[in-house]
Specification:
Layout: H1 3-12, E1 17-22, H2 26-34, E2 41-47, H3 51-60, H4 73-79, E3 83-85, H5 88-93, E4 99-102, H6 107-119, E5 123-126, H7 129-146, E6 150-152, H8 157-170, E7 175-182, H9 196-200, H10 204-209, H11 214-221, H12 224-237, H13 256-259, E8 274-279, E9 296-301, H14 305-313, E10 324-329, H15 338-348, E11 360-366, E12 375-377, E13 384-390, H16 391-397, E14 406-410, E15 425-426, H17 432-443, H18 447-451
Parallel strand pairs: 1-2, 1-4, 2-3, 4-5, 5-6, 7-8
Antiparallel strand pairs: 7-9, 9-10, 11-13, 12-14, 14-15
């Protein structure tokens, strides 16, 4: 609770946290907008495939040209300005940069960036949650071996869910379930970039004028992004998915304690300690009042009569038994909050969420019948959708992680609804991301699976 005071101390001492960011798109730009308003932080460099686009992002969020008119990274550090280039290698290798914020949104590139940062002794704040879902447990292991911190990005829902889970446990409450909200109906799983705007209530022209990316927005709508984020939460908190993945039960905020309790007690959970996503729509499509669509929640348990009586005395909304209660944040501010991670990592050496095991996986499932020879188009596209699976089930099936279901050729036909397997695609076994993922799978195989 004293991060701001510690940042002020660093500012007064002339020792700001020196940060480099890779990727200046929407998420990166939101963080960049906050940097000039945050004491004790110096954004030393921005690496982006298009420096011109990075400069446009800076202008859009209100930076003046003199703030980023540094001729080199060394000059930027000396003048306390920001250097822009397309050379991410130079950024992560510079000895003065302490923290790297990875915000490219490209999971394959993000893995490469993180590993290079670790080799250079840098902490990493991973905005690209797809990379964490893909191989977060191994990235966390590599960071620990390098003596640096690897962290999920606060402001994005997984890190905020981790925060709520930690709050409940640190206060002595068993966590029954945790997750996020989502606008969901079952047929959204088949949505494509052509249909997405209709479900969002926008015309294609409105989306074009707003500069909205249909594939990215579709990855949220069709359930791919919720599966990815739920994977990150499971691997960071120890919570686990239901055997069939996400069910998206509809519920208002006030109904969370009733819905997010075990089925044996009248709720919708497969088991206690589960990750789930709550829908803001009833199954008939009607909007639920006081929903948690843009927020996060945790349901926890009062284990004694005394604790449950306290719930009643202080007006806590519970299920009818008085045993289950909820805490929530109804909104999250995405990149505007990433500074919490930067400060926590840089000042305390603590992540705002970090994988501690391989418990869940986001895998690729066919949206339609797929033919051998087709090239997969990744999350949010026309061909695959993300599905949350227990990691043990994913390993047993040889399931293809969603992060690798892009720009690879199918060698086998796959029926709609079926989970894709490694054997169904012609992957590049020598690619760093593939090698890292395979290493992680091997490292987390159970003794029984090794023997098989």
């Amino acid at each position: 609770m004293n991060l701001f005071a510690k940042l002020q101390e660093r500012e007064a001492q002339g020792r700001p946290l020196r940060v480099g960011i890779i990727g200046a798109g929407k998420f990166g730009a939101m963080y960049i907008a906050q940097v000039p308003r945050t004491p004790g932080v110096h954004l030393a460099g921005i690496a982006d495939l298009s420096p011109a686009n990075a400069r446009a992002s800076l202008e859009r969020v209100g930076w003046k040209p003199e703030q980023y008119a540094a001729a080199s990274l060394d000059a930027a550090l000396k003048e306390r300005r920001t250097h822009i280039s397309d050379d991410w290698n130079a950024l992560v290798a510079h000895p003065a940069v302490e923290i790297v914020v990875e915000a490219t949104g490209n999971p394959i590139a993000a893995v490469e960036h993180a590993l290079a940062a670790f080799r250079n002794g840098k902490h990493v704040v991973m905005v690209t949650v797809e990379a964490d879902a893909f191989c977060g447990p191994l990235l966390a292991k590599r960071a620990k071996e390098a003596g640096v911190v690897y962290s999920l990005a606060y402001g994005d829902q997984p890190a905020i869910i981790c925060d709520l889970v930690d709050w409940a446990r640190a206060a002595g409450f068993p966590v029954v379930a945790a997750g996020r909200g989502h606008k969901w109906l079952p047929h959204f799983a088949q949505s494509t970039p052509e249909t997405v705007w209709g479900y969002y209530g926008l015309t294609p022209e409105q989306a074009r004028v707003g500069g909205l990316n249909p594939k990215m927005f579709n990855s949220f709508l069709d359930g791919s992004k919720p599966a990815i984020e739920a994977t990150a939460v499971c691997n960071a908190t120890g919570l686990t998915p239901a055997p069939e993945g996400l069910a998206y039960p509809p519920a208002s905020i006030e109904e969370l304690p009733m819905v997010m309790r075990p089925k044996s007690e009248g709720g919708q959970l497969h088991h206690k300690g589960q990750v789930e996503v709550v829908s803001s729509l009833d199954r008939d499509g009607r909007t639920i009042p006081y929903d948690i669509r843009f927020g996060v929640w945790v349901v926890f348990e009062g284990e004694s009569d005394y604790i449950r009586r306290c719930f009643t005395e202080y007006g806590v909304r519970t299920d009818p038994s008085g045993r289950y209660a909820a805490m929530y944040k109804r909104w999250h501010l995405i990149g505007l909050e990433v500074g919490i991670s930067v400060a926590s990592v840089g000042l305390r050496g603590e992540p705002t969420g970090c994988a501690t095991g391989f418990r869940a996986d986001a895998v690729a499932s066919a949206k339609r019948d797929l033919k051998a020879g087709e090239i997969l188009d990744g999350e949010g596209g026309y061909m695959v959708v993300g599905r949350l699976m227990p990691a043990e089930d994913s390993l047993r099936a040889g399931a293809l992680p969603l992060g690798l279901a892009q720009q690879v050729k199918l060698v086998n036909p796959v029926k709609a609804g079926r989970v894709l397997c490694w054997a169904d695609v012609a992957h590049d076994a020598g690619a760093e991301a593939v090698r890292v993922r395979r290493e992680m799978e091997s490292a987390f195989l159970s003794p029984k699976q090794r023997a098989a």
